[in-house]
Amino acid sequence: MSLALAGAEPSTKGVVERSSNAQPGSQAGLRKSAQPLTFTLSRNHPKKNHMPNILHRIGIEETTSETVYQAVASREGIASWWTEKVTGKSTVGSVLQFRFGKGGPDFQVLELAPPTRVRWKCVAGPEEWIDTRIHFDISQQDGETVLLFKHCGWRAEVEFMHHCSTQWAYFLIGLKQLVEGRPGSTIWSKVRAH
């Protein structure tokens, strides 16, 4: 096996590779190769523009992509699992307002691609949410409808982000139960009443 460092001129003279069935530490199974094994050495630094995301995967049985799409794309659908107080139009370029007790976020609808994708951008609400995006990606996999949820573009991993991740999981499980026809209400106004 040969090691060529980034920036160094790789050499093909005398490069030796070990065959896949050779025992470690033995000389058996070595063969000459004209291709060097090249490694790039780098420091393990976070990317400068890395922004943390909240990610959830929900597998939903006995339903269609269209049903899940309506639950995340329409005002009526969203009001059935997240908050009953939804105003605005769910059309590209419009703004949906979601209210929870004392306030809530406003999201501009960026994309509606039935029955596979919904994209929103936060334009008003909690400071940490401004300019974040919500992605709902829907597909069929192994006999179930899969909803991939992403709340992306957080500027920093703050404690509020951890809280929101827990809350999103709670509400998305409620969406799953609703679409599967099982009891379980996680609508915000009902949660806060108890």
How is this structure best described in words?
The chain has 194 residues and is α+β, with helices and mostly antiparallel strands. The protein folds into two domains: 1-42, no CATH class; 54-193, START domain (Alpha-D-Glucose-1,6-Bisphosphate, Chain A, domain 4, 2-Layer Sandwich), CATH 3.30.530.20. Helix content is 21%, strand content 29%. It has four helices and nine strands, in the order E-E-E-H-H-E-E-E-E-E-E-H-H. It has helices spanning 65-73, 75-79, 159-179, 188-193; strands at residues 16-18, 30-32, 54-60, 85-88, 95-99, 106-113, 117-124, 133-141, 144-152. Strands 3-9-8-7-6-5-4 form a seven-stranded antiparallel β-sheet. The longest helix is centred in the C-terminal third of the chain and has 21 residues, at 159-179.
SSE topology sketch:
Layout lengths: L15 E3 L11 E3 L21 E7 L4 H9 L1 H5 L5 E4 L6 E5 L6 E8 L3 E8 L8 E9 L2 E9 L6 H21 L8 H6 L1
Antiparallel strand pairs: 1-2, 3-9, 4-5, 5-6, 6-7, 7-8, 8-9
